[in-house]
Amino acid sequence: MLTSLSIKNFALIEKLDIDFSENFSIITGETGAGKSILLGALGLVLGKRADLSSLKNKEEKCVIEAQFNIARYKLEPFFEANDLDFEKETIIRREILPSGKSRAFVNDSPVNLQELQELGEFLIDIHSQHQTQELSEETFQFDIIDSMAANLEEISEYKSLLKKYRNLKSNLTVLQSKLQEASKEQDYNSFLLEELLAAKLKTGEQEELESVFEQLNNVELIKENLDRAVSIAEEEQFGVQHNLKEIKASLQKIASFSPDYNSLFERITSVSIELDDVVSELNQKAESLMSDPEQLELVNQKLQAIYNLQQKHQVKTVDELLLIQNDLDKKVISVDSLQEEIETAEKEITESASKLDVIAKAISEKRQKAIPVLTEKLIAILELLGMPNVRFKIEVSLSENYLANGKDDLQFLFAANKGSDFGLLKKTASGGEMSRIMLAVKSILAQYQKLPTIIFDEIDTGVSGEIAHKMGEIMKEMSKTMQVFAITHLPQIAAKGNTHFKVFKSVVGDQTQSELKLLSADERVIEIAQMLSGKDISDSAINHAKALLN
Fold first, then answer.
1. Helix/strand/coil for 408
2. Which residues make Cβ contacts (< 8 Å) with residue 369, sequence separation at least 6?
3. How many CA atoms are closer than 13 Å to the CA of 406, on its beta-carbon side?
4. How many other C-beta atoms are found inside a 10 Å radius of the C-beta of residue 35?
5. Burial classification of residue 270, based on how many CB atoms lie within 10 Å of its CB (0-12 exposed, 13-18 middle, 19 or more buried)
6. Is 200 helix (H, G, I), strand (E, B) or coil?
7. CA–CA distance, 441 with 390 (Å, rounded to integer)
8. Tens digit of pLDDT for each residue in 110-150?
9. Which runs of consecutive H residues, i.e. helices, occur in 60-133?
10. C-beta separation of 501 from 27 below 8 A
11. What is the DSSP letter of 235?
C-alpha cells in the first residue's frame, strides 16, 4: 500500500508531504485544483517519462518520493532478479534535474525506467475512464477469467512448455534449412570424395614417389656413376683403397714413436674402415639397380593423379588434400546425420505438443467452469449500478494454434438492454457503462487475487443518485482487502471514504500553487455539503452531508 507521498517543485506544487492510511481514501476538489497533478506525480514514480515542463521552478530540481508497504506483496524475487535491496517499507524516488535529465531510485539504488515500470505494475493500478478500453482487449478478458478459474499455475507451466515447444520448432526449421542446403551439394561432394578416396593418398607419399621417379627415370646415369665410383675405389694400383692401405702401413711403422703419430694411424684406420663400408654399399646399389619401365610408368601415373588433384583443389601438398578429403567426408555424412537430427526433433515436437494439449485442455475446462460464475457476479453488481437488463455472452472454443495463454479463442460479448443484440464491448457499451463494468470487474478480481493499490479517477462521471451510492459501497467493500483511492465529484461516493483529502489552489505572493489537505470531521461535512449545493452552503445541505456521512 502507498503509505506516504512527498512532492517538491512539481507543476503547481511547491512542497507537499502527505501520509495515507489503508482502506478507502477520498480525494475531492474543484476542476483544475490539481488532482491530475497528483496523478502525474504518481505516474513519474511509476516510471512515466518526464520533461522540463514538470518543474515549477526551472532552476531547481523536482523530487517525488513515495513510500510503499510491500510486506505482503511477495516481491522478493523481483528485487533479487533486479539486484535491489528488499525493504518492507520501500521508497521510490524520482528526480528531474533542471538540465532535463531524469533519475530514479528504489531504496537508494539507481534503476532505469523499465525496471521502475515493472515494479510499478505491482504497486498501483490507476484506473480512469479512458482506461476502460482494457476491457475490450482479449488478454485482459482472459486475465479476468483465469483469475477466477485459479489458472495461474497451469498457465505458468503452459508458458514454460510453449517456450520450449517454439524453441524446438525453431531448431527444426534451422535443421531443415541445413539439410536442404546440404542436399544440393551432396552429389558434387560425393563425387569429389570418391575421387580423393580412389587416389588412396598417404602422408609423405608424394615425396617418396618423386624420389622413386627420379631414380627410375635416371637409372643409366646412376648406374654409370656408381660403377665409376666403385672402380676408383677398388683399382689395384691406384685405387683409393690401395692408397689408403699404403698410408696406413706407413703410419703403423712410426705409431709407437709418438702419441701424435699413433693418433694419425688410428684416424686413417677409421677412414679405411668407413671407405670399405661405402664401397661395399656402392657395389650393392650398383648390383640391385636395374631399369623397370613399367614401375616408372606406374609411379608417373600416381604422381600425375596427385598433381591433378592438387591443381583442382588449389593446394600444394598431399596433407592438404587429406584435410579436404576429411571435410568432404563430414559433409557427406552430415546429410544422414541431419536427417537423424530432424527425426529426433520432430519426435520431441510431437511429445511437447502432446504435453501442451493436455495442460491447455485443463486450462480450458477450468475456464468453462469459471465463466458462469463470472457472468453471474457481473450481472448482480451491474444490476445494483443501474443496468438491470445487462447480459454477457462469454464463450471459449478450442483453437488449432498454440496461443500465449492456452488454445482457446474467446468471445466476450455484451448487451445492455432487453431485446438488443450481443456485440463487442468497445462497440456496444457507452463510456459510463464501460466504467461501471470495469468497477464490477475490479471488485470481483479483488476477491480472487491480491490487487495492488487502486486509484479510481473520476470513473463515476455520468452517474448520480442511488447509482453513485452503490458505486461507493462497492469501492468501500473492495477496501476491506486492499487500499482504494477514489477521485470523485460525487458526494455519495465521497461520504463512503475512511479518510478524505481535498485538493485546492492558493495564492502565495504572485504564485498560484496546489495543495492537498486531510480533512477533519467538521471540514469533511462542509466539503460534502459544498459538493451538494455549491459555495453557498444551506442548512439542508449540511444536514444532508451529515446524513450521508452517517
1. strand
2. 149
3. 27
4. 23
5. exposed
6. coil
7. 14
8. 999 999 999 998 999 888 766 677 788 888 899 999 999 99
9. 76-81, 113-123
10. yes
11. -
- Give Cα 189 to chain centroid, integer Å: 39
Residues 6+ apart with CB under 8 A from 505: 12, 32, 33, 34, 512, 513, 514, 515
pLDDT in tens, 282-338: 888 777 666 667 767 777 778 777 888 888 888 888 788 888 878 776 666 567 777
d(CA 316, CA 532): 101
SS3 204: coil
Cβ atoms of residues 547 and 46 within 8 Å = no
- Contact call for residues 92 and 45 (beta carbons, < 8 A): yes
Counting Cα atoms < 13 Å in the Cβ hemisphere of 12 gives: 21
Amino acid (1-letter code) at residue 322: L
| Plot region of 112 (φ>0 → left; ψ -120 to 50 → alpha; else → beta) | beta
User: Which CATH superfamily includes the segment(s) 2-134+431-519?
Assistant: P-loop containing nucleotide triphosphate hydrolases (3.40.50.300)
Beta bridge partners of 503: 516
* Helical residues (DSSP H) of 235-317, grouped into ranges: 240-254, 259-288, 293-313
Highest mean pLDDT among 151-165, 272-286, 454-468: 151-165
Q: Retrieve residue 305's grid coordinates.
A: 593423379
Spatial distance between the Cα atoms of 245 and 232, rounded to a whole number of angstroms: 14
- Write out pLDDT tens, residues 387-402: 899 999 999 998 989 9
Euclidean distance between CA atoms 384 and 469, whole angstroms: 10
Cell numbers placing 286? 650398383
On the 0-12 / 13-18 / 19+ scale of CB atoms within 10 A, 284 is exposed
Q: Taking Cα atoms as reference points, which of 426, 427, 434 lies closest to residue 385?
A: 434
How far apart are alpha carbons 357 and 350 in whole angstroms? 10
Spatial distance between the Cα atoms of 8 and 106, rounded to a whole number of angstroms = 18
Return the SS3 of 480: coil
Gyration radius of the chain's alpha carbons: 48
- Kindly list the domain boundaries of the chain, sorted by start residue: 2-134+431-519, 176-337, 520-550
Strands (E), 191-238: none
Q: What CA–CA distance (Å, rounded) separates 123 from 259?
A: 109
